Amino acid sequence: MKTTLLLLVAVVLWSMPAFAADPSAAQINTAFSKADTNKDGTVSQAEAMKFGITAQAFEKANPDKDGTLDKTEFVSAVRYQFEHADPDKDGTLSRKEAGTAGVKSNKTVTGANTDKDRTLDFAEYLHALTMQAK
After folding, report:
1. In a domain, 90, yes or no
2. Beta pairing class for 43-44 and 68-69
3. Overall number of domains in the chain
4. Which residues of the chain carry a pLDDT beneath 70?
5. Are 42 and 69 in contact (CB under 8 A)?
6. Is 44 exposed, middle or buried (CB count within 10 Å of its CB: 0-12, 13-18, 19+)?
């Protein structure tokens, strides 16, 4: 019984970082709201680019080619951009990789890096883009 309980605790603890890397619904809602500057419920390409999403990420995440991103497509665009900037596929962005992915300053990286490990996971990357969006 003790062995099973210890194994269960180990599995839960081992898998926690994977969950921590995913943004919460509240983080997604905040980012989407910040990107949707005209508050029409979608993010245009111009709004996406102001938020820090590249034209390439926008196109990849907009399969219906309607010229706007809904919330699901918005998250897909940010994730595509994150994964594209992570050449070593370790699930985090170094300061240099974050810069490639549109994070403009060390101050933003530091502010978004909530676990203080000097890298950005996906949730922290979304937070960084949200922080620097005007």
Report:
1. yes
2. antiparallel
3. 1
4. 1-20
5. yes
6. middle
Does residue 84 fall inside a structural domain? Answer: yes
Q: Domain for residue 18, yes or no?
A: no
Q: Which domain holds residue 102?
A: 25-132
State the DSSP code for 66. S
Q: Looking at residue 99, which CATH number applies to its domain?
A: 1.10.238
Q: Is residue 73 part of a domain?
A: yes
This prediction's pTM? 0.83
Amino acid making up residue 120: L
- Nearest partner of 83 among 109, 65, 52, 57, judged by Cα: 57
Using alpha carbons, list the distances in angstroms from residue 73 to 83, 86, 108, 129.
15, 20, 24, 16
Question: What is the per-residue pLDDT across 56-83, written as a single tens digit (0 to 9) for each?
Answer: 999 999 999 999 999 999 999 999 999 9
Query: SS3 letters for 90-128?
Result: CCCECHHHHHHCCCCCHHHHHHHCCCCCCCECHHHHHHH
